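Continuing the series of single-chain predictions for the mutant panel. This is the parent chain; the variants come on the following pages.
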Amino acid sequence: MIQTSIEFFLFETSLTFALTDSLIFNFLFFILGIAMWFPVRYMSFNEKRVIPAILNHLLLGIAMLLLWTLTGYIILKSIIGIDQTVLKFLDVSMPFRAVIGLLIIILIIMIYYLMVYSENLKQKINDEANLKTLIREAELSALKAQINPHFLFNSLNSVSSLTIRDPSRARKMIIELSDFLRYSLKHKEKEVTSLEEEIQNIIRYLEIEKIRFEGRLIFELDIPESCKLLSLPNMILQPLFENAIKHGVYESLEPVTIHLKCECTAEFLVLVISNNYDASGAGKVGAGIGLKNINSRLKLIYGVGNLLNTSVNNDIYKVILKIPVT
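Parent structure:
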C-alpha cells in the first residue's frame, strides 16, 4: 500500500502500474524473506568464526537482493511491455529499490536472529530449570539416605543385645522395624505425605524405641482431626523424635515424656515436639545430622529458612516445626 501510494501520487504513474509493481516486488520479497530464515537459523555465529559468518551473511544479502531486483524487473517488464515512460521509471528507480531492499533484508535478518536468540534463551532456561530440579532431587535423596542407616544402626544394635537376654522382645522389635522400613521404602520416591501417615510411622518408631527403653520412654500425641490430612515432607519427624530420645531418654535415668502437639493456621502446619531431660546428664553432643538434615530439606523444598526453631526452658527441650500450607 505504501509503495503503490508513493508511485501513484508522488511519481504520477498509473494506478494499474503502481499496483502491479507493488504486488510483484513485495510478493517476491515475501518469498525471499521466508527463505532467508533457513540460512540464518543454521548459519550461527561463534567466537572462532565471526568474520567468515559476517561475510557469509553479506553474500547472502547481496545474493537475495540481486535475485529480488532482477526477477522483479524481468517479470514486471514482461507484463508492461515496451512502454518507454514506464521502462524509464523502472530503470531510474532500481537503485532506490536496491537500497530499500537491502535495509529491509538487514531488518529481516535481525528479526530472525532475535527469534533464534529468544528460542535458544528459552531452551537454556528450561535446561537450567531441569538441571536444578535434578540437583534438588539428588540433594533430597542424599539427605533422606542419611536417616535410615543412622536409625537402623541403633536398632540393630538393640536387637543384637535383646536376642540374648529377651528373644521375644527382640522378635517384636524386628517386626516393628520391618513395618517402619516398609513405610520408608514405600515413600522413598514421594516428596510429601499426609500428617496422619507420618504420625502412624512415628508411632511405629516409638514402639521400637519403647522396647529398648521400656518405662523410661513415654510419648503423648495431641493431633486434631483437622490437621491429619495436611501434607508435610515424609520422614521429616523421625529425626526430631530420634534427637529427643538420644539426648533425653538415653541420657536420663528417670522417665522422659515426649509430647507432640499440632496446630493449624492459615499459613502453617505447626508441630511442637517437647521433652524433659536430665540437665546434669545431658552433655553428650552428637553429629548433628537430625536438625541439620531437616533444615536442609525444608530449605530445598520450600525455599525459605527459619521453619525449624528450638528452645530450652526449665529442663524442657522444645522444637517448633512450621510446614507451609500449600
